[in-house]
Specification:
Largest sheet: 5 strands, mixed
Number of strands: 5
Strand order of the largest sheet: 2-1-5-3-4
CATH topology: Ubiquitin-like (UB roll)
CATH architecture: Roll
CATH class: Alpha Beta
Radius of gyration: 12 Å
Structural class: mainly beta
Distance between the termini: 45 Å
Strand content: 35-45%
Length: 67
């Protein structure tokens, strides 16, 4: 079974029960140096093992170093 979520403006289908940590792995992103918001609310690292809800709007921000 799958759910539909929006990740940085792009609609994606993922397995039901997918967590934020698993989503990062699917997208090939590291767990360090990123922030995740779910429906506009910061999703603290301690809750990354909770399943994402169907229809969630996910924003993933990566840290960029520069000057």
């Amino acid at each position: 079974m799958t759910i539909t979520i929006e990740v940085n403006g792009d609609e994606k289908e993922v397995a039901d029960g997918t967590t934020a940590a698993a989503l990062l792995a699917v997208l090939g992103l590291p767990e360090r140096g990123v922030a995740i918001a779910v429906d506009g609310v910061l999703h603290h690292r301690g809750t990354w093992d909770a399943p994402l809800p169907d229809g969630a709007r996910i924003d993933i921000l990566t840290a960029v170093q520069g000057g």
